[in-house]
Write a structure and sequence with these properties.
CATH architecture of the largest domain in chain A: 3-Layer(aba) Sandwich
CATH topology of the largest domain in chain A: Aspartate Aminotransferase, domain 2
Oligomer: homodimer
Shape of chain A: globular
Number of domains of chain A: 2
Mean pLDDT of chain A: 95
Largest interface: A-B, 88 and 88 residues
Distance between the termini of chain A: 46 Å
Number of helices of chain A: 13
Number of strands of chain A: 16
CATH superfamily of the largest domain in chain A: Type I PLP-dependent aspartate aminotransferase-like (Major domain)
Low-confidence stretches of chain A: none
Radius of gyration of chain A: 21 Å
Amino acid sequence: MKLSRFGARITGQSGISDLMDDLGDALANKPEMIMMGGGNPGHIPEVSKCFQRLLQDLANDAELAHSTVGVYDQPAGDQSFRQKLAAYLSGQLDQEIDASQIVVTNGTQTSLFMLFNLFAGPGEDNVNRKILLPMLPEYIGYADTGIDPALFHSLAPKVEPTSAHRFRYRPDFEELSTLDDIGAVCVSRPGNPTGNIISTPDLEELDEFAKSWGVPLIIDGAYGLPFPNLIYRDSKVYFSDNTILTLSLSKLGLPAVRTGIVVAPKAIAKRLATMNAIMSLAPASLGQALMSPLLEGGKLDALCAQHVRPHYLAKRDALLEAADRHFQAHGVDYEIHEPDGAMFLWIHFPSLRISSQALYEMLREREVLVVSGHYFFFGTSEPGLHSDRCIRVTYSQNSDKVLAGIEIIAKTVAEFA
Amino acid sequence: MKLSRFGARITGQSGISDLMDDLGDALANKPEMIMMGGGNPGHIPEVSKCFQRLLQDLANDAELAHSTVGVYDQPAGDQSFRQKLAAYLSGQLDQEIDASQIVVTNGTQTSLFMLFNLFAGPGEDNVNRKILLPMLPEYIGYADTGIDPALFHSLAPKVEPTSAHRFRYRPDFEELSTLDDIGAVCVSRPGNPTGNIISTPDLEELDEFAKSWGVPLIIDGAYGLPFPNLIYRDSKVYFSDNTILTLSLSKLGLPAVRTGIVVAPKAIAKRLATMNAIMSLAPASLGQALMSPLLEGGKLDALCAQHVRPHYLAKRDALLEAADRHFQAHGVDYEIHEPDGAMFLWIHFPSLRISSQALYEMLREREVLVVSGHYFFFGTSEPGLHSDRCIRVTYSQNSDKVLAGIEIIAKTVAEFA
């Protein structure tokens, strides 16, 4: 097979394809596997019922059913959906958002593939710009998105202890001041894999750096603000005239509709809509049609506050309690990133004698699937001390199994530390 | 705004973005415009009812509703859908198709963006390969998909008169024998914009050329075989062990679900699934869920044969009759490509004294929207005589308006020829 350089690289062995192969293999051959690896949202009965009702309403309205499956949207998404969303966001972001600032895509993965390659890579002025990830670890899904093979410039974080067995990462602003040739800055907030929520002052400082370079600050809000609101620490949504906010319907409970949303300055939104046309023609309509009725009368916020957020918060608290108990019972040296948001615990084992990948393999043998932390450190040759001693565990799935899983993790780490 | 070279080019003024801007402007400011430009499928009441019923069935089944919106598919698409589709295609293609040969994408535009850039551009061996379009005119939507700015190598067609005021394009095989550095060969079949259906012997010859270069033959079957079957001339679906067949649910009546299907050799399908994961994470589920019940018991073929195909065939015949009548009444020098498939008439005006773009603008003034033929000639510096004297008119929309539109076209061309 004769492949382009880009094609060979993007389809070759990568973190994400390794993981998927492994996951597929585990699912096929080990039905008892405890799934604490992937990012599938939990099944929340009230939320499923809500979306089923919305789907029924849509299906029972001949005109709406036809427009949802039978008429192409504009490349930026349905105009009336974008207007409703703009009105909703204007309330949330405390500033006027116009429909022309909104582009609907086929999911956040597609949003970021487009944005990263719009801003980074060899430039019109022959400068080779990078996407700056100012605070590793960052989302594994970004790692292979570059048309240019070295798309990212990533910085190791500062580690700040917060209390017994707890810490937080923060951006290292001294490192930032030495950089140039940046095309855009990107952070996930809440962070995947850590659950970190970068503070507003830190975001403002990142935004100032971005402005000083004349580039945008991309905030990947897939887990967060203003929805699905998997936020467990007092935090506000951040938006400035230099911000690109990417949102998703996935963690609200709609991962299979593949709807991503980008809120950006108008000139960037216009570029992105053209890119959407060329790469996807138009976004899928279903997610927009299901969301539309929720954008009015506070329904979306109520769904998040009453069902989505409490579901994950309860699971987080249960896993956190069990983790502390089992790790301490087995004498494990551990620290957990403050789980301020999202659906993950990010656990650091300072005395681990094996690599996090070896730990992952050991755990897989014992039928617990986690993600080795090393995947989340890319775009740098100096990833820092945490890069080989952490794992990410997901608490979105069935609680009993997850609680059994954390005990197996505690026992296993105790053997190798 | 600092953009990558790729980003600046793909989001700059291009055929497709010009067209979209113009279309948006026309829709906003000229409500009486007769739309014979775009590719929206027609509204077929029986088909809309069928899909509404399928949507209701899905919405009323709590488990199915949840899996359709609430659970990520695998990157290649839902396994059970791919198995059903493989069984259906095995019957249609007269050979065993395995589910592992099928990848579901977010639409044909995305399928081809991935395939073109997988095979063409600078190669691992430093050879810069091209996508060969062996017979212009070709689909405008391909034109801007290249990560590499010069992705295509296109050949002008041979023109064969068939009867009074009719002709067909054929590939110029002598030209093909002089080529090298090809990464893949691609044809739309039925052709967009011409409605041409390349004959099986000609396809076999193209496939032989592709094999001699060690590259695949991509057949874009969005309008065709085996579904939605907008085929008006005895033709068979073509598939070999060197073929990549791309299919779409759009022209069946489901453009807004954004579901594309790629059938390929297993090794290529595996690469494409990885590319899908990195660019889109997973495909949207709705199109697969709606199609699944139709794949059994001959339902899909019956829907196409009883409703989809007859709808377009009747519209084609009506427009063709009106075109001959009005062109001849106004003494227009014209020839129409044999409308063997799809939903377009491709009309050549040999004596046109203005460019096809100028004709388009004139017609827009008179509230008839068509597409200027020059957009469909790209990837060559020698597009041939037809490249500036043709228009594409779509017959999928409201018939009375379309019939009024063709008379305005006849009068206008008569003034400028």
